Amino acid sequence: MFTAGIDIGSVSTEVVILGEKNEILSYTVFDSQVDIEKTVQEAFRIALEKACLTSEKIDSVVSTGYGRNNVPFANKSVTEITCHALGAQHLFPGTKTVIDIGGQDSKAIALAGQGNGRVRVVDFIMNDKCAAGTGRFLEVMAGVLNIDIKDMGCLSQRSNREVSISSMCTVFAESEVISLIHQKLPKEDIVSGLHTAIARKVLSLVQRVPMEEEITLTGGVMKNRGVVEKLRQELLPKRINLPDEPQIAGALGAAIMAKRHTVSRT
Description:
- By secondary structure, the chain is α/β, with parallel strands linked by helices.
- The chain has two domains: 2-92 and 245-265, 2-Layer Sandwich (Nucleotidyltransferase, domain 5), CATH 3.30.420; 127-241, Nucleotidyltransferase, domain 5, CATH 3.30.420.
- It has helices at 36-50, 80-91, 135-145, 152-156, 170-182, 187-206, 225-235, 249-265; strands spanning 2-8, 12-18, 24-31, 58-64, 76-77, 97-101, 106-115, 118-127, 215-218, 240-241.
- The strands form two sheets. A five-stranded mixed sheet has the order 3-2-1-4-5. A five-stranded mixed sheet has the order 8-7-6-9-10, with helices on both faces.
- The longest helix has 20 residues, at 187-206.
- It is globular.
């Protein structure tokens, strides 16, 4: 039995293909385009190619994310909260809290295990009204600093004196960073300050749900080593899990849901 999970976000689309034993056969991370259906088709094609499979071999497809209703070949669509919970706990069975930071939103999810790979979402909170603490926030700040967003993690780790960033509103923070640049402060110190501000913003979100060990970090922003390090510092002494590929947790959870959907039909 082969199943696929597709997570369509505002910034990226992820596809995961699972094998008989819930092993990940392949995955792909694709930039989301204006034409969602075209993006999904191309991301799915690449994932199939990597897994050496054809679409006819896939028994079930589940979609998730904000664009989940735009996948014409999906057998079912599921909320991203459930999928991120399933994906995180599949990767780290002891997961009790999930912190996900994506391109346009961040979320905290409290879980309770039910055994046999089942998971129950106890509570969750999402920041989807403001770009504060998201990938979009970092993207804007990288533009102001004239650096590649992919270099921000390494840059912040070279900081010797962190700069305090007082605002998390993207507009006000942009003005604040411009002012710091004019003061000729090192970019690495500014970036380190931005990462600390993000970690504290996310922590304020997480504290509004029951926060227990273990905590698993997911989402594209978790590829930024600077953000992850600041989160670890803020969350000490709790145990923190970081997947090898934190961006695919939602698609992984969707693929697991697809397997359950297939079994329920037989």
